[in-house]
Amino acid sequence: MTKFLSAALLFCTCFSFAQTKPQSFTVKHISATIESDGVLDEPIWETAESVSNFWQYFPIDSIPAKKQTEIKILYDDTNIYIGIKVETAGNNYIIQSLKRDFRASGSDNITLLFDTFNDTNNAFLFGINPYGVRREGVISGGGFNRNGFSVSWDVKWKGESKIYDDYYTAELIIPLTSFKFEEGETKWRFNSYRYDTQSNENSTWVNIPQNQFIVNLAYMGDMIFEKPLPKSRTPLAIIPYVNALSQKDFAENDNKNSLKFGGDAKVSIGNSMNLDITVNPDFSQVEVDDQVTNVTRFEVSLPEKRQFFIDNSDLFSSFGGRRDANPFFSRRIGIARDTADANIENKIIGGVRLSGKLNKNLRLGFLSIQTADDVANEISSNNNTMFALQQKVFSKSNIGMFFINKQSFSDYDFLEDQDKYNRVLGVDYNLVADNNKWMGKFYAHKSFQPEGEGVFDGDNNPVIDDDHNLSLGAFMQFNNRNYNLFTDWVYIDDEFRSDLGFIRRKDIIKAVLGGERIFWLKDKAIQNHSFELLPMAIWKPGLNYKKTDHNIVTTWSARFQNQSRISVQYSNRYIFLQDDFDPTGKDDAVPLAGNQGYHFNRYAFSYGSDRRKMLSGFIESSFGQFYNGSRFAVRTDFNLRFQPRVAFSLILNYDNIDLPEPHSSADIWLVSPKIDITFSKSVFWSTLIQYSNQRDNLGFNSRLQWRFAPLSDLFLVYNDNYYVNSFEPKNRSINLKFTYWLNI
């Protein structure tokens, strides 16, 4: 491991370059009063320094924005005050709805980014649209891709907008307690980006090349405070809830009525650490998971939506490889497998989470959650703990280490010795070169668990399996305007275990090489087009390094000036099935034979329309061979908007799998319509219907939400599920939930 890290550090120094001096502006300290009404009529705004001269990001990233934006920022000992003037071609604005935490692309809005620790790794995000609808979020991992972008984080602040003929203005008041920063700090890094649908223009204050994600934290200027920032005491937040639930399980003919109490607390430790506490948590306000069609042999990873796990989530979830070897996957907590090997809810008794900055360059994360036992389903009570440190090195890179422990402290007759605990220790090095063209990740993880049932040492303690149990990886990417090149190598030992992680499969050596050539066109209907070659291969050490998979994908894609997209793809695939496998999911199907290799080709076409339009959508169609048969698939996602109050979406997926006799063929449907109605900025109603014949489920989820105070809600949620074939009810529930955010 020492040689591994030394090589990574040496590689980093080879690609470190000096940066030019960033743009900057001064933020004046004031004592005047500002009202957040969207109208910039307070005289104090005339004294503020302007942030202007925005650059186009789309369609051309080398010219000034056609419609400019002016931002002014002031502060006192309590708040940050932001005044914004946004020039437009008219007032025919596109917005998604009146609901908070809107999606930025495809609508008119402006977003502000604050890197309060000047570490190019994490930032706070605040945005507003012409109707005064707000959103806030956090960015982690440097903002290099969408994996580090989340608007699930919530905090209290004020913001309003005012629309005029050819511009709109906005006023934001953000308490300093909403941020984390060092006492006495005199500078934050800052950037802003804006979507302008009428001019078909996206722009940023600091110029960002289009080959980089628009929230890339490597491209920011400096906001310099006139006076050092004071010590800021974030108030203690108590968030209690009451949930009245009535439900019926039709299969068991069981009716349940319950009244639950619990809540969360958020405690600030200094200016830069958070302590989150949860007791008897209830996550029923979270929207139901989107169902997916799965015709692979592997589990599907679904995103985390629970607020408790969101803040500083990268400290816990960014280790390892996101696709193949993620050692910590928070959705494992609160879910367990019953005696029928089905996933069911596992009650969380409570937990704590400490996260934030110990100093300017060192971050700490600690999480410990206790789950309850369910003896009837042979589920043990477990403590789930993770400890993580992340040290910044050089200007943008970091080294992280972690320790994970899942352990049962009680003896259960049904619990095997090898399942009494699982521990994982690891170290990651994340490389980001100063020139922003090179980035990479190198990691080494090792798991520890009892070797097996009935194996003990001389002191009657379980023997620990500490041979091998390794997960190793190396990823490097070069990204400039015309070329995107990367390689990814993964090794996962057959005996490696991470019970709190997402490990798609083990006993593999995986190699990926990717290359993309991008062509930028000026004054053409096509804004850019590219050719990409992506070969992947997997070998299995346990089968004498036999190649079990390869997938060679060739793609041509193009983006048009109106922001629509098109792509054409061809892939050649080989899969060696070790075990029998049925891709149709039918109970009586004859599976494909294991210990056999299958070669097949696939062709695909996709088109995404201009999301600024009232009706927009995406469609992908693919066809070709599939194991020893064929497969035809269609994926669609349509959106119809009657702004500002009604939005309708429809996801429709169809798979036709045709296999020769005696194997089964199947028509697999997933149909998911959703309607969102925003009666006002505080009252929302959404209904989601999901039909999946693969999962034999027709589900209805309807939720009425009243935000009666900042971050305080009253929910009325109705859930109903039916079997598809017989249309008989499975389970039904209705719950009324009250939650209140109280600052002390």
Descriptive overview:
The protein is mostly beta strands and 744 residues long. It contains 2 helices and 44 strands. The strands form 4 sheets. The chain has a 24-stranded antiparallel β-barrel. Strands 1, 2, 3, 4, 5, 6, 7, 8, 9, 10, 11, 12, 13 and 14 form a 14-stranded mixed beta sheet that branches. Strand 25 and strand 26 form a beta hairpin. The longest helix is centred in the first third of the chain and has 13 residues, at 2-14. The radius of gyration is 27 Å and the shape is globular. Residues 1-19 have low confidence and may be disordered.
Topology (elements, then pairings):
Elements lengths: L1 H13 L9 E6 L20 E2 L3 E4 L10 E7 L3 E9 L21 E7 L7 E6 L5 E6 L9 E2 L7 E6 L3 E9 L11 E10 L4 E4 L16 E5 L11 E13 L4 E16 L3 E7 L34 H4 L7 E2 L8 E3 L5 E3 L2 E10 L4 E10 L10 E12 L3 E11 L13 E12 L5 E13 L13 E2 L4 E10 L3 E10 L9 E2 L4 E13 L5 E15 L5 E15 L4 E13 L18 E13 L6 E12 L2 E14 L3 E13 L7 E13 L4 E10 L4 E13 L2 E11 L6 E11 L2 E2 L1
Parallel strand pairs: 1-4, 1-14
Antiparallel strand pairs: 2-4, 3-13, 4-5, 5-11, 6-7, 6-12, 7-8, 8-9, 10-11, 12-13, 12-14, 15-16, 15-43, 15-44, 16-17, 17-21, 18-30, 19-20, 21-22, 22-23, 23-24, 24-25, 25-26, 26-27, 26-28, 28-29, 29-31, 31-32, 32-33, 33-34, 34-35, 35-36, 36-37, 37-38, 38-39, 39-40, 40-41, 41-42, 42-43
